[in-house]
Amino acid sequence: MNPSFALGSPLIVMMLLAGAFAGDGPLENPSKRTSPDGPGTGAWEKRSSFLQGRIYHSAIWTYSEMIVWGGGSEHQFYGDGGVYDLVKDRWSPVSLTNAPSGRWGHAAVWTGKEMIVWGGRSSFAPSDNKNDGAIYNPATDTWRQMSSEGAPSPRSQMAAVWTGEELIV
Fold first, then answer.
1. Which end of the chain, N or C, is less surrounded by CB atoms within 10 Å?
2. Other C-beta atoms within 10 Å of 79: how many?
3. Residues 106, 133: contact at Cβ < 8 Å?
4. Local structure of 51: helix, strand or coil
5. Span 112-144, pLDDT tens digits
6. Tens digits of per-residue pLDDT, 12-69?
7. CATH 2.120.10.80 for domain 58-168
8. pLDDT for 11
9. Vertex 51, ends 49 and 53: CA angle to 5°?
10. Where in the chain is the domain with CATH 2.120.10.80?
11. Within a 10 A sphere around the Cβ of 107, how many other Cβ atoms?
């Protein structure tokens, strides 16, 4: 079977989700689609910008804001981030006190209260993979270090999930 057409493939799943969010089937004529939220929704809008352009950063949704952390560009690895308020179209910088070092390809998950950042690397060399991280609380704009006891071996570009009680890498 051609994997690009398998039901579980990202392309098919994205098409099905796009249809579900648009209110129509994924293969219908896009010009006939209507949004369940009314006219004018589902259209692209220009929003404010804040951080330098970057790749391999993390972006998590807190159900009210988006937090972007780390990433890199042109041999620089950023140890900064921002919190974006969609309603106000406003960015706020993330505190750098106790923040993890600059990195890209790290894992980030939302616990319901805090963002956990773990792993990644600070160069293009695989030997620079990390097995440390920190926990960010957007309500207080504070970071706290996390224990590395029992942590997985250093790695980047890995899968990670929050179970409701623990981070699994």
1. N
2. 16
3. yes
4. coil
5. 999 999 999 998 887 889 999 999 999 999 999
6. 333 333 444 444 444 445 555 555 666 667 788 888 888 888 999 999 999 999 999 9
7. yes
8. 36
9. 95
10. 58-168
11. 22
What tokens appear for 151 in the block?
Answer: 């942590």
Residues 6 or more apart whose Cβ sits within 8 Å of residue 6? 12
For the chain, what is the mean pLDDT? 82
DSSP notation for 85-137:
ETTTTEEEEPP-TTPPPS-BS-EEEE-SS-EEEE--BSSSSGGGBB--EEEEE
Q: How far is CA 76 from CA 68, 85, 125, 127, 133, in A?
A: 16, 26, 13, 17, 19
Buried b (16+ CB within 10 A) or exposed e, 60-72: bebeebebbbbbb
Asked if 135 and 116 touch (Cβ cutoff 8 Å), the reply is: yes
What is the β-pairing status of strands 65-69 and 161-162?
unpaired
What values do phi and psi take at 58, rounded to 5? -110, 150
- Distance CA(84)–CA(7), nearest Å, equals 34
